[in-house]
């Protein structure tokens, strides 16, 4: 066993009915398991992207999964800019998707229509 593996007893996910939870995401109830992150609940519910505010307008959701990129931010119980990949879901959490417009950043060059992607 490598140092990165956890024994099953250390897994924070609690499968089964005892670990069941429900959160509201923009008013929609989503079921999850205690120990899952909010991103985990969203992904398990089939939501692969929940924001539409990248510079190029591409959908954003889970990118790094380790709390570095901030692509997954949501509002949780009124608290903005929570990284969904880092916050464990709690039964009854009220999650709102942040649909903010990007701020104007003067001095930056215009992006090409394809966001700079290579063809
Ligand atoms: S996915 Fe990168 S911070 Fe959450």
UniProtKB/TrEMBL annotation:
Keywords, alphabetical: Oxidoreductase
A Pfam family it matches: Fer2_4
Domain of life according to the entry: Bacteria
Molecular functions per Gene Ontology: iron-sulfur cluster binding; oxidoreductase activity
Name of the protein this chain belongs to: 2Fe-2S iron-sulfur cluster protein
Source lineage: Bacteria, Bacillati, Actinomycetota, Actinomycetes, Micrococcales
């Amino acid at each position: 066993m490598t140092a990165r593996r956890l024994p099953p007893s250390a897994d924070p996910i609690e499968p089964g009915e005892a670990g069941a939870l429900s959160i509201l995401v923009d008013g929609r109830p989503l079921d999850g398991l205690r120990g899952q992150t909010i991103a985990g609940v969203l992904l398990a519910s089939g939501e692969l992207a929940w924001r539409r505010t990248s510079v190029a307008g591409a959908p954003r959701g889970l990118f790094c999964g380790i709390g570095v990129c901030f692509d997954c931010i949501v509002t949780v119980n009124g608290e903005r800019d929570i990284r969904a990949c880092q916050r464990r879901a709690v039964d009854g959490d009220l999650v709102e998707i942040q649909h903010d417009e990007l701020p104007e950043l003067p001095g930056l060059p215009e992006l090409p229509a394809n966001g700079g992607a290579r063809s």
